[in-house]
Amino acid sequence: MIDDATQIKRKSFCLNHVCITIANDFLLDSILISFSTCLLATFIKPCALKDSQSNDCLARNIENIFQHWRNGVPGLSGVGSLDPFRVNRLRIAQRVPPNVDVRVELRNMTTVGLSQAKILNSTTLYNTGHYNLGFHVHLTQINLTSKYKLKGHVLLLNLNSTGILTSELDNLEFYVALRMQPQQAEGITFMNVNAIKTDIARIDNIRINLTNLFNGNKELERSANEIFNENWRVLFEILRPVLTQTFDSVLEDRFTKVFRYLPAKYLFKDVE
């Protein structure tokens, strides 16, 4: 006899002429989805993971997932908007002597521009049961808005303030390393994401504005923001962990859910 905790509950529905069966496996705490037809979004093409000539195919698929599913994935709950992407809270402590020694808390952060990602290239490596997928991402511009709380010193400024942070970042490039392995579920192979890590490689400029830096003294606030923008590379060392955590969060959430949603054969034609 199977108890309630291990029962697999099923339901089916049709979306855009695609009939889908969903099995909710409470033991594995995952959602398994099988397609009863091969009618799939036309922007996704199966690529060969073990063929280096398929790197362009993989790059196009990744780019299309960002752009076409920027508002979520049709038929899949739990995948929110990519543009804007929201993070409830981030805490960072940065010490880069002698210019930076600061603690920052960001709340209700909104990031705009991620759906316009361009994938410059991709690579794959197979190693005894798992795959490493790497890709190089370019973003023309990213806009950040957040409530902030800051204490410490940046350059020559001693700061202890709360307010609103807005920032624009130009020509940002970063590398992504994604580790995944095939996983069988009811005879269907899905890709399980084990780990993901990003590494920022390039940024051309940052413009930033922090409100309420000196208890509402607009002249001092304006001068401080001018100093920040003139020394944006120093400021970038404060923002680097914010960006890295944001990208890690975006990509892990996106790829984990999409790969659990789509059987592997729709993305990777040489995965059994």
From TrEMBL:
The record's family statement is: Belongs to the TO family.
A GO cellular component entry from the record: extracellular space
Which terms does the UniProt entry file under GO BP?
circadian rhythm
Q: Which domain of life is it from?
A: Eukaryota
Keyword Signal annotated:
yes
From the UniProt record, report the name of the gene that encodes this protein.
Answer: Dmoj\GI23277
What organism is this sequence from? Drosophila mojavensis (Fruit fly)
One Pfam family linked to the record: JHBP
PANTHER family assigned to the protein according to its UniProt record, in alphabetical order: IP09473P-RELATED, PROTEIN TAKEOUT-LIKE PROTEIN
User: What InterPro entries would the database entry show?
Assistant: Haemolymph_juvenile_hormone-bd, To_sf
- Report if keyword Signal is assigned: yes
The record ties this protein, via SMART domains, to: JHBP
Protein name as catalogued? Protein takeout
Keywords, alphabetical: Biological rhythms, Signal
